[in-house]
């Protein structure tokens, strides 16, 4: 079955820190060195978490990651499945980068983007230049297409022919491959980096006084669709309060209700929430004013959504009951499970990913409407499904 996307989280570490994860996530943390970045790598099993835990874990990792120092070498937190190690071959499984910045360090974080991209491009271009003589001779001898020749070189990065073809289509090169000069090879390396390693920039600590000027600098460099403003520590704080029964918090929104808010809305029991003391109440009000009301959310959920958009992924919610959207007979939560599939995937593709080889009698959508296996899955269409096991 297809695997979930894997995302590399990049940022500067204050030291070799232990990755803080959800208690039920069972993290695997290999301590091996990356040949590229010369820093300790941490791995985390994110793919098998529920959608709620996946977001929570990202918030905790981001908050931990953004405790920055003056270190000049960023660490790559690579999201891997449990048990896999850290080595050069990790590039074959990586689908995109998520670059976390802090906006409150008194330095120019926009240069980090230039540094990281430069490292990747130089690595790819250097590998091509080192063998370019033999690559050209083989290309001419086999009368191969540029796509076939480059795919044989880029396969080590986890590319495929469609990816290489898109890279060359963007460049529209007229010069034959055997006549490419170093400048042209550099353009190819740049275009391939864009295609293979799309990057979301998460600008963290947006509530700090000097955040605005750094946001403006980065906004001039990047496509606005690749930028998300975040406050990871706020997300962690709100989720802790909600778990401890002090507030009701709708993740990814600006809705935070304390006991007194619910009482004022007519609930005499205040939703069963605990009373906030003066210190907590002040912190929550400040968080609302500085983050939620100003930016609309903490941004952590939006980072995952933006990553899915850049990867061309569609979120699909398998449920047990298409009327209540619950996942089981004893489940009170809705949309507890989420899988990500590529654009133009069919309902059959989703069934294969969710159910494996189990025989399925039929599939239903919202309201109990039967859905054909050949129907296309899109956002808002055939993206809530229940699978009825049995012979058709």
Automatic annotation (TrEMBL):
Source superkingdom: Eukaryota
GO molecular function: ATP hydrolysis activity; GTP binding
Entry's Gene Ontology cellular component terms: cytoplasm
Keyword annotations from UniProtKB, A to Z: GTP-binding, Nucleotide-binding
InterPro entries: Beta-grasp_dom_sf, P-loop_NTPase, YGR210-like_G4
Keyword GTP-binding among UniProt keywords: yes
The keyword Magnesium is annotated on this UniProt entry: no
Domain Obg-like GTPase YGR210-like G4 motif-containing: 202-321
Official protein name in the record: (Perigord truffle) hypothetical protein
């Amino acid at each position: 079955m297809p695997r979930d996307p894997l995302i590399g989280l990049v940022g500067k570490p204050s030291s070799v820190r232990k990755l803080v994860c959800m208690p039920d996530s069972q993290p695997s943390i290999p301590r091996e060195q990356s040949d590229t970045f010369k820093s300790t790598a941490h791995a985390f099993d994110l793919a098998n978490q529920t959608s709620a835990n996946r977001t929570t874990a990202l918030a905790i990792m981001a908050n931990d990651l953004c405790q920055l120092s003056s270190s000049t070498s960023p660490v790559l937190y690579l999201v891997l499945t449990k048990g896999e190690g850290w080595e050069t071959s990790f590039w074959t499984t990586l689908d995109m980068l998520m670059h976390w910045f802090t906006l409150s360090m008194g330095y120019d974080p926009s240069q980090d983007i230039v540094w990281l991209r430069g490292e990747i491009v130089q690595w790819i271009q250097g590998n091509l230049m080192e063998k370019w003589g033999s690559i050209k001779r083989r290309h001419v001898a086999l009368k191969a297409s540029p796509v076939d020749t480059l795919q044989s070189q880029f396969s080590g990065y986890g590319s495929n022919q469609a990816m290489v073809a898109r890279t060359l289509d963007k460049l529209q090169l007229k010069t034959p491959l055997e006549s490419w000069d170093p400048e042209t090879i550099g353009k190819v390396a740049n275009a391939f980096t864009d295609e293979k390693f799309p990057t979301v920039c998460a600008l963290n600590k947006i509530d700090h006084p000097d955040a605005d000027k750094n946001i403006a600098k980065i906004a001039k460099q990047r496509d606005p669709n690749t930028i998300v403003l975040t406050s990871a520590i706020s997300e962690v704080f709100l989720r802790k309060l909600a778990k401890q029964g002090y507030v009701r918090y709708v993740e990814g929104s600006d809705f935070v209700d304390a006991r007194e808010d619910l009482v004022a809305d007519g609930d005499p029991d205040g939703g069963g929430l605990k009373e906030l003391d003066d210190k907590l109440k002040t912190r929550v009000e400040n968080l609302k004013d500085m983050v939620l009301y100003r930016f609309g959310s903490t941004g952590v959920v939006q980072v995952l959504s933006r990553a899915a958009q850049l990867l061309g992924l569609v979120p699909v919610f398998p449920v047990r009951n298409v009327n209540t959207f619950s996942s089981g007979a004893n489940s009170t939560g809705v949309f507890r499970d989420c899988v990500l599939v590529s654009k133009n995937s069919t309902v059959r593709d989703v069934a294969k990913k969710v159910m494996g080889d189990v025989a399925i009698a039929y599939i239903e959508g919202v309201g109990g409407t039967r859905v054909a296996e050949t129907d296309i899955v899109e956002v808002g269409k055939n993206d809530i499904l229940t699978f009825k096991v049995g012979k058709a």
